[in-house]
C-alpha cells in the first residue's frame, strides 16, 4: 500500500493477480505474500476471489491497529526451515486478537472477511454489495473515494522534505 501525492492510498504489487477468477472458476497456484495468504491457499486447495477479501480483512486490521493480524513474532527472522509451516499453522488455526480500541463495526467487518471457511467469508459469493453496505463503511462514499473526490484526513501531515517516489524514480 502506498500513499500518492494527494494522500490517497494505492494498492500495489498486483503482479500476481489472476484475471478471470470468478465463480465457478478456481485457481490453485500457491503464491502471494505469505502473511496475507488465506487458509485455502495455505492448504493448497483451489480458491477463488474469496482470498482477495481475506487480504482486505488483513489490511483493514493492520491499518487500524498498526500491528500484524496474527502473532507472527520471530517467524521471519528465525532462520528455521519450518518457519513457513509455522506461519501456515498460525493462519489455519489462530484467531485474531482484536484491540480494545477497535469499534464494533471494525471488529465485525474484519471477522467477516477473515472467516477461515471461504464459503462463510464475506465477499466470497462474488458480490461486493454486502461489504459495501456493512456499518464499517457507513458514511463513506466509495464511488467518490475511488474517483478521488474525497479529501484525505488532514490529521497526518507529511514530514518536511519527505523522500517521494515518483513514476520517474521507479524502475520496472
Q: Which fold name is given in CATH as the topology?
A: Transferase(Phosphotransferase), domain 1
Q: How would you describe the oligomerization state of the chains in this entry?
A: single chain
CATH first level: Mainly Alpha
**Strands ordered across the widest β-sheet:** 1-2
- CATH H-tier superfamily: Transferase(Phosphotransferase) domain 1
Structure notes:
- There is one protein chain.
- By secondary structure, the chain is an all-alpha fold.
- It has one domain: Transferase(Phosphotransferase) domain 1 (Transferase(Phosphotransferase), domain 1), CATH 1.10.510.10.
- Helices cover 29% and strands 2% of the residues.
- It is built from six helices and two strands; from the N terminus they run E-E-H-H-H-H-H-H.
- It has helices at 39-42, 50-65, 83-93, 104-113, 129-132, 142-146; strands at residues 2-3, 9-10.
- It has a two-stranded antiparallel ribbon.
- The two termini are 17 Å apart.
Short précis:
With 172 residues, this protein is mostly helical.
What's the SSE blueprint?
Layout: E1 2-3, E2 9-10, H1 39-42, H2 50-65, H3 83-93, H4 104-113, H5 129-132, H6 142-146
Helix pairs in contact: 2-4
Amino acid at each position: 500500500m502506498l500513499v500518492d501525492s494527494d494522500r490517497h492510498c494505492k494498492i500495489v504489487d498486483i503482479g500476481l493477480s489472476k484475471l478471470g477468477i470468478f465463480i465457478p472458476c478456481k485457481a490453485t497456484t500457491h503464491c502471494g505474500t505469505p502473511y496475507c495468504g488465506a487458509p485455502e491457499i495455505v492448504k493448497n486447495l483451489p480458491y477463488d476471489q474469496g482470498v482477495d477479501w481475506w487480504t482486505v480483512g488483513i489490511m483493514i486490521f493492520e491499518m487500524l491497529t498498526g500491528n500484524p493480524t496474527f502473532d507472527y513474532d520471530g517467524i521471519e527472522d528465525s532462520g528455521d526451515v519450518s518457519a513457513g509451516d509455522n506461519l501456515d499453522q498460525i493462519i489455519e488455526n489462530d484467531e485474531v486478537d482484536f484491540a480494545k480500541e477497535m469499534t464494533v463495526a471494525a471488529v465485525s467487518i474484519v471477522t467477516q472477511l477473515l472467516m477461515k471457511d471461504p464459503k462463510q467469508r464475506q465477499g466470497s459469493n462474488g458480490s461486493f454489495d454486502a461489504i459495501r453496505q456493512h456499518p464499517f463503511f457507513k458514511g463513506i462514499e466509495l464511488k467518490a473515494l475511488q474517483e478521488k473526490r474525497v479529501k484525505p484526513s488532514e490529521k497526518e501531515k507529511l514530514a518536511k522534505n519527505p523522500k517521494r517516489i515518483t513514476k520517474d524514480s521507479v524502475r520496472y
